[in-house]
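--- STAGE predict ---
source: upstream dedup step, 1 unique chain passed
mode: sequence only
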Amino acid sequence: MRTIDLSPLYRSFIGSDHLASLVDAATRAEKQSSYPPYNIELLAEDKYRITMAIAGFSQDDVTIEVQENTLTVTGKKDSDNKDVERKFLHKGISERNFERKFQLGDHVKVLSADMENGLLHIDMERVIPEAKKPRQIEIGSRLIENK
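--- STAGE serialize ---
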């Protein structure tokens, strides 16, 4: 197992403790399976889309939840359909339950989700508050706060 020495980050960057904690969490995270397959697209400068191939799942079988900076997509099939015994000559479509987690960046908001042709589309946008946007400070100027 590889370890990453993050001490140069702590010396070089202000606020790198958040970056370091994200790297630590990523290295400690359990290995996720590759099911279901997904794409992450950049639609515009601050707009993103996750597309997941979830053939065989209906809208009622899928749950999408955002908590803090983690997007969790869970698919659970009803066990009622398992009562019917089926014989497959070839089974290439997986019908297993899944849970896929995505770590969202700061200020990323989930806008919408829809399903079409066995694909789940989740649209997101990064909305940076005005207070967090860069601003230019002129030399010789003074910030005066109203009390």
